[in-house]
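Filed under: proteins

Residues; backbone shape codes:
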Amino acid sequence: MASAYERVRPGYPESVVDEVLAYAGRPVRTALEIGAGTGKATRVFAARGIAVTATDPDPAMLAELRRRVPGKVVTVPAAFEELPLDSAYDLVFAAASLHWTRPEGRWSRVAALLDDHGVFASFGGAVQL
């Protein structure tokens, strides 16, 4: 399934990184991606030198991601709700994956994963409040 997902799912243009970085209004060195799948968005952020931690509950998806961006990305096999809150990031983002997270506690969890001046970005799908 992960290889089929990789084959048919479209990627993200580099311009999405430009927009997110402009929105952040500050340097972004670290990022946490929620529901990274096979890493379509991960790749364009990592290509800019951002240290991305990619999360996904499906180990097969993360294995495919590691094949596509070997050694450049930390992967965590966990759902967003299971992530430990012991790290903070300049950016937390969801690329067409926010709808997979539970609404209860979503925003307090995002806030806990951001550093003091960090930002959240969601693109490629509807933002659910």
